[in-house]
Amino acid sequence: MTTLRVSGLLRQRLLVTCLLGLGVLPTARADLTDNLVASPTAMSLGNAVTADPPGVESIHMNPAGLARMEGNTKTDSVFIASIRTKASFTSAPDLNLGGFKDDPLNGTHTGPVRQAMYIPVVGVPHWRLPAVVVPGMGYTWNEAGSPFTFGTLTYLSMAFTIDRTQDKNDPGRYQGKLMDIQRLVYLSPSVGYKVSDTLRVGVSVPIAYANFAIDTDMRFPNKLLGTVGQLQKGVCPEGNSNVIDNFFFGLCAGGKEGMLDPFKKAASFKVDMTAPFEPTINLGVLWEPKSWFGMGLVYQGGSNTTYKGEYEFHTDPMLRQFVKGMNSSLLGPIAGAIVGFPQQIPEIQTGSVISSINHPARVQMGIKVKPLDFLQFNMDIGYADWSKWKTVTLKFDQDIALLQMGRLFGVANPRELTLNMGMQNVISYGFGMQAQVTDKLALRLGYEPRKSSIPADKISLFSPMPDTKLKSVGFQYKFDSGAVMNVAASYLKGTYNVPARTDCNLNCDNFFNLIYNPYAGMDVKGDLIVRYFGMSYTHPF
After folding, report:
1. What is the CA radius of gyration of the chain?
2. Taking the C-alpha atoms of 211, 217, 222 and 226 in order, what is their torsion angle to the nearest 10 degrees?
């Protein structure tokens, strides 16, 4: 009779596991930066821990999990992550930008990639790192018999960094010599409350130091620039001005330096913005009606944060001399005024910049099932509002002469630059398995099919985030002293192939696709690989 009861219970658990697993099979969408380095325990389980939130890291994953903590604990953690990405460029056979057909980037590929790390107050140091190392620390406090557990955690909730500055001729420099987006939570007052033996709730208020930094060269392979460049060659093949040209539009009055070439570097741009105080809110519920089954729900609130910082535009001689030459002729100033060109372009323009950047809200729900006493399966489904990053607009403190050149192409306000990120809302899934090998040792596996929140026609080297698969392993070891060590390692990889003229954040060559398609008319292929190692050590105090 006992055997029949056990077998029936086992069949019930297995049925629940299978049904809930089948319920999350449709294609998912997720973003690279979600939950990447917040918790080594979560990473080892495919970030599917909403129904089994891990220790003080519950503050991010599901604050209701704090209410399972007893006594006072301290957690020290360290994360090591490397991002490697490469891209290759091949010109379309029919590439023709107003007569210019031979792009010097044809047949090239990007070079070595390193990481940068933003240090609050200091900024981005001139260190070029093979990987980013991020320490973390957390505390929980619980008095014996109290239903309340309090805590705080320092962690990196979001990060993406690419550094291509090792090779000054890297073809990827036109969409980011340096890119660093980071959100460091430095304080997160939190509380979990045990409502009953089966129900717990929690709330946390993560307060982050966020930054947004870009350093990139710029070029404008556009048909209009190519057409004017060919006219210059016809009027003054050697780049020397003449009386007739000076009388009319001054196409060649800028000399050899003012000869337009759509494939030539035109400018460089740097921006460094921060938001030192960015609070959000996390709300969580954890329901464990059976020892073998549990459900969790967490809401991670978004924000509408104002970033402030500095910028620098450096314009190369080609455009500066071209505009100077036009304005030195008889009819050039009239033609320039009609199309909105500036009277001159300074070599360097610097000042202050401001931008409102929304941090997306996220909802995640998960279940845990133990079909056997030593075996547990976790499954999560989440939704993130990444459409808030569809565009990011930078507002400058003055008219930018370089942007005035873009009025002909639809740039209405030379004090603003809109980055078309193209992100869309996403649904994500995660799967984890844990085997309790001994009373002290548990082994873990995790899997996340991450389909990018960036559509195929919006991907760029600023955000080379294709569909990826994340595979993780890890373990937990409990010491006799009551201390617990968690270790995780993961590997993420994805590839992309963007045919020429299919992505207007990268390679369109229509007349009005000036900002921003630095690889116009080129096939772009690439990949993204992220390697991660994390470890945490929790002990009572």
Report:
1. 28
2. 160
C-beta of residue 196 within 8 angstroms of C-beta of residue 151:
no
Q: What is the mean pLDDT of residues 493-510?
A: 93
**What span, in angstroms and rounded, lies between the C-alpha atoms of 154 and 138?**
6
Please state the φ and ψ torsions of residue 179, each to the nearest 5 degrees: -140, 125
Q: How far is 409 from 526, CA to CA, in rounded Å? A: 29
Q: By three-state DSSP, how is residue 277 classified?
A: strand
Query: What number is the average pLDDT over the span 492-502?
Result: 95
Which whole number is the average pLDDT over 377-383?
95
For 329, the token pair is 């002729």
**Inter-residue contact 43 to 530 (CB < 8 Å):** no
User: The tokens 């449709």 sit on which residue?
Assistant: 26
Distance CA 284, CA 49 (A): 12
DSSP designation for 35: T
* SS3 readout for 148-206: EEEEEEEEEEEEEEEECCCCCCCHHHHHCCEEEEEEEEEECCEEEEECCCCEEEEEECC
pLDDT of residue 450: 84
From the list 316, 360, 343, the residue with the least C-alpha distance to 414 is 343
**Which residues is 134 bridged to in the sheet?**
79
Whole-structure pTM value: 0.87
The secondary structure of 354-393, three-state, reads EEEEEECCEEEEEEEEEEECCEEEEEEEEEECHHHHCEEE
Kindly report, residue by residue over 12-59, the tens digit of the pLDDT: 554 444 444 433 333 333 455 667 778 999 999 999 999 999 999 999
| Mean pLDDT over each residue of the chain, to the nearest integer | 88
Q: What are phi and psi of 10, to 5 degrees?
A: -65, -45
Structure tokens belonging to residue 37: 């380095």
Distance CA 245, CA 322 (A): 13
Residues 6+ away with beta carbon under 8 Å from 191: 63, 66, 148, 149, 150, 151, 202, 203, 204
| Nearest residue to 497 via CA among 60, 89, 42 | 89
Residue 349 DSSP label: E
Residue 116: both structure tokens together: 């940068």
d(CA 204, CA 421): 30
pLDDT digits (tens, 9 = 90+) for 340-361: 788 899 999 999 999 998 888 9
Top mean-pLDDT range of 190-204, 253-267, 344-358: 190-204
